[in-house]
Amino acid sequence: MNDYIIDAQEITKEYDGFKAVDGLNLQIKKGEVFGFLGPNGAGKTTSISMMVGLLKPTSGQILIDGVKIEKIDKGMIGICPQELVLWEHLTSLESLKLMGDMYDVPGDVLKERAHKLLEDLFLDEKANTLVINLSGGMKRRLNLALALIHSPEIVVLDEPSEGLDPQSRRVLWNFINSLRDDEGKTVILTTHLMDEADKLSDRIAIIDHGKLLRLDTPENLKKDIGEGDVVEILLSNSEENNDALNILKEMEEIESVIEINNKLDVRALNAVSKLPSIMKNLEEEKISIEDLSVRQNTLEDVFIELTGTGLRE
Length: 313
Ligand code: ATP
Prior knowledge:
Layout: E1 4-15, E2 18-29, E3 33-37, H1 44-51, E4 59-64, E5 67-68, E6 77-80, H2 92-102, H3 107-120, H4 136-148, E7 154-158, H5 166-181, E8 186-190, H6 194-200, E9 203-208, E10 211-216, H7 218-226, E11 229-235, H8 241-250, E12 254-260, E13 263-268, H9 271-284, E14 289-295, H10 299-307
Parallel strand pairs: 3-8, 3-9, 6-7, 7-8
Antiparallel strand pairs: 1-2, 1-4, 4-5, 9-10, 11-13, 11-14, 12-13
The protein binds adenosine-5'-triphosphate.
Adenosine-5'-triphosphate is lined by residues 15, 20, 38, 40-46.
């Protein structure tokens, strides 16, 4: 039994001497949602393509559940590409049945799965609608259903939220969570949306210039870079700032307290959960708060700190 469903060992991809991926070591655990972040051209698609057998590395090797990738059953992996791969003149249901037949999914299983996928992705009312008559967001959801009809263990989603409205994005997010939580699938996700990566991923790899910069949980990434969230406190009487500062510094799980522009900036992990005790400790010393707000560190801060850039074109 392997803990890692994907084990990429020193993989490199060169194009005419240019290293698109440069000695990447990466392990993906069974049943996790694994996010891939990096600026444009960082090597995300190339890395993932190698890790799922679409592209042969120049050097290095990949094990899938302990087996060399060249030897695995390709049905283990489902890939939902960024571009739509649909048959416009079939209905949603016919498309799913055709794809299922290609993977030799038995008829009764196929029927059940197709209906469940349509239902889960809110397409059941469009089962008998021609693909050409689906909206853009519906087409994207059908694209995803097609990647899953053979029930692969590993699901690769390449920028799945691209072009979806906020409502469809929620449907997608819930669906991705249920793939992991209810079905135990491993999901690999690329996205340029930091909040999406943050909300969905158990762990995130940040890569640039074909190399791994960091790999950790979203929470740890944010903690390492920005030492948690920031609570900004304005006291009614700024002469009490010093006393308040000393009280807050004594509190457990508070990373740091500094005075900036007459306000107290308190850094803590999960600062919202610390608010009641912060308020109580100050009130006990008769220090009154005029205003208080919480600002969260975002993955965007982490990303920019590591790659020195926003999203590079
Ligand atoms: P994006 O976020 O823009 O999709 P990415 O991180 O997925 O970017 P890749 O598509 O993996 O980046 O590309 C990494 C680098 O490798 C880029 O510089 C790209 O131009 C180069 N590259 C990718 N495929 C090829 C190819 N077939 N031939 C030559 N160079 C390539």
